[in-house]
Design brief:
The complex is a heterotrimer. Chain B is an alpha/beta fold. Helix content of chain B is 41%, strand content 15%. A 5-stranded parallel β-sheet of chain B has the order 2-1-3-4-5, sandwiched between helices. Chain B starts with 22 loop residues before the first strand and ends with a helix. In chain C, helix 5 runs parallel beside helix 7 and helix 12 runs antiparallel to helix 13. Classes of the chains: A alpha/beta, B alpha/beta, C mainly alpha.
Chain lengths: 284, 158, 208
Amino acid sequence: MKAASVLAPPVISDADFQKFAEFFHRKTGIHFEPAKRYFVDKRLVERIQASGAENFRAWFVALRFETDGAEMQRLVNLMTVNETYFFREAYQFDCLVNNMLDEIAARKRPGSRIRIWSIPSSTGEEPYSIAIYLLERWAKIEQYDVEILSSDIDTAVLQAAQRGVYSARSVGQLPKPYLKKYFTPHGNDEWRISRDLVDAVEFSRVNMSDAADTRRFRDIDVIFCRNLLIYFDDLSRRVAAEAMFDALAPGGFMCLGHSESMSRMSSLYTMRRFPDALVYQRPL
Amino acid sequence: MKPPSSLRSLPPKGVPGGSGMNRILVVDDAATVRMYHRKLLGDAGWHVDEASNGVEALELVHAQGDANAFDLYVVDVNMPRMDGYSFVRELRKLDARHQAPVVMVSTEAASHDASAAFDAGANGYLIKPARPPDLVLTAALLLGDRTAALKSAEGAKS
Amino acid sequence: MALKKSTDTTTLRPVEAREYPRDTDGLIAQLADADATVRRWAARDLAAHPRAAAVLCARLTDETDASVRSVIFSSAARLGGSVVVTSLLPLLRSEDPALRNGAIEVLAGQPDAVAPYIEKLLGDADGDVRIFTVNLLGDLKHPNVPQWLAQVLVNDVNVNVVGAALEVLAEVGTPASLPALRAAAKRFADDAYIGFAVDLAIGRIGVS
């Protein structure tokens, strides 16, 4: 009789799922409801097998006690959706033009400068989305000089951002009039963004953990830092949150990704609830 | 029946008319404690939400619309990131719709802690680990839930 | 007006007249500056100056600004090591929860440097100190954590210390923890919470 030579894939018991969900929630603030069981179990099995662990218990002990944070990083990547596209989480851009900018403008003389910092720039969808929103949906855009700064640690994506070519999927959420106005068709079902918008954004390479990089940014009025800090370890997250606090002007606003929370990073920011979004603020 | 420790009298918040059951926010960094309080308070017939520190609690409070603002807060004193007293002080700065009674839960038996709780804006104070009848009775009294209060008092006698 | 690219590079790289040089002693002096921003930047830059570890941590007891404290803790965490650990351990006794929890967070990131102190702390006369030590174990990446917790379950007289230990064991408990778990349930048989927490921790150990 031939012996079984293939191990059955690990099974995630209810107790295992709860243990994992609590640990993950404690570390990241992300909740996995029972409804997400299939989603989570599938990825746990993937990580257990990829890491060569014998079972869930062995894998979890390694995760809990690892000192370099590598498995946690892989896990977070797997458990979160990393896609970027134009007008992603647009409710925050609504909040920008409906509330945040008006409050900021009220504290400044007309004609003065307003600075918005978008991190990470990734391939540019976020800073360009902000630019389009400002031009199309902020009533006071002609009364202030608005600077859009955008940074990323990865020079390859910065180059792509400045090249400004996007897939149909990436521009899929844009209202058709905006697509027509700010993009030209390019190659095979792609779109190239107008040079005016590329030129309007100041791109830079920045490591958020490096004070030498972040100290250059001052008097920022709004920071968008969405779906970046979730991938950082605890200390780097704190350091970045503190760096952004210093970059902000007093009263400046900061937006995290919709599933992210300051509760795992810092208590320095106050919270402001606007009709469109909950945002964080450096106290005045 | 021994009354729970330190309960400042307050006109009880009425049971919300028509909009459903009372909503309680349990704030504690220990998941096991949150689960335990959820079990006790849920069994008494109330809806329970959880937060693991003061910052997360404030985020959750802000996320509630008018229809589902919390009716009671059960708040651990010692939590990382933002402790219980800081949370209550921040809570008391918010709109009227978020204001509701607060019960602090603490390991310290020293009387100074109770007065610190009231100074911060709390309405009640329990010493950890809270005995089930004390927690439920305190919550029922502050919620103005007469049925639950009587039921809990009965339970405490046995 | 409208979208304006910043062509003025000095706004991105402000050149400031520096009152103090950014060497160790200059930065230490700035830790006591009247301006919180100056203090915060000094605390941030001192993360690269191991010689200043003790002075940096000592500043915590005098520092009233939360944003400066936060950066001091972060820099202490980046520096790490035994000087940081010995400087922060006394804060476990602080009346200020922000100082206590800030210290715990840094100490939890120093498993090898903190390990020699754990047993003594778990035997401290002050129950609160023992609770905070258990909280520290909750994030400490040291292989002895389950054994230290088991000791608490078997020996500690304070129900809240045992409760705190059960919380951590729900996550890190092993089959070897079972005797200690049963011992705790027995010692605190009258406490509903302890019974609940023991059952939970036992359930989490499972058989995977």
